[in-house]
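Subgroup meeting minutes
Present: P.N., E.W., G.H.
Scribe: E.W.

1. P.N. recapped why we're keeping a running log of single-chain structure predictions: easier to compare across weeks, and new members can see raw inputs and outputs side by side.
2. G.H. added today's entry (157 aa).
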Amino acid sequence: MTLITPKNVTIAVIGLFLVFVVALVLVDGFFLPKDYLEPWSETYYKQFEDPRVQVLAHGVLAPNSHNLQSWRVVLEGEDSFLLYVDHSRLSPKADPPGRQVTISQGTFLEYVRVAAGNLGYEAEMELFPEGEYGPEGTATNLGSKPVARVILKETTG
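Output recorded in log:
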């Protein structure tokens, strides 16, 4: 016959706590590789052959509003890409007119420009190549036209 004693209750509570901690560590992925850190590796961009993707690998590290990475890129031709606002990654409550996300697009473009220069390219940028998307700032409106067209040109010397 087992008696419920303070000692037995304490042992049971400690046992349940340890089971909870172990389960939490396993569910959290503590023992899994931290793939999400790869883009910060100094050599991450080298795995890509396309120089556009190499500079984009740097661009995605740009600071951005609400940490939402609201960039969408469409590769075009052999040397250029279009940058759009990814309207599915916005924070309309915190940034109703879309000003902060627009600033984040500029930060992304600056990271791309610097990375291109370091990789031997000039990043020629045409802002709002299809016209501005208007003052409304709605999610659909923000993603309707490209923010920029970026053309990479190899630098000489």
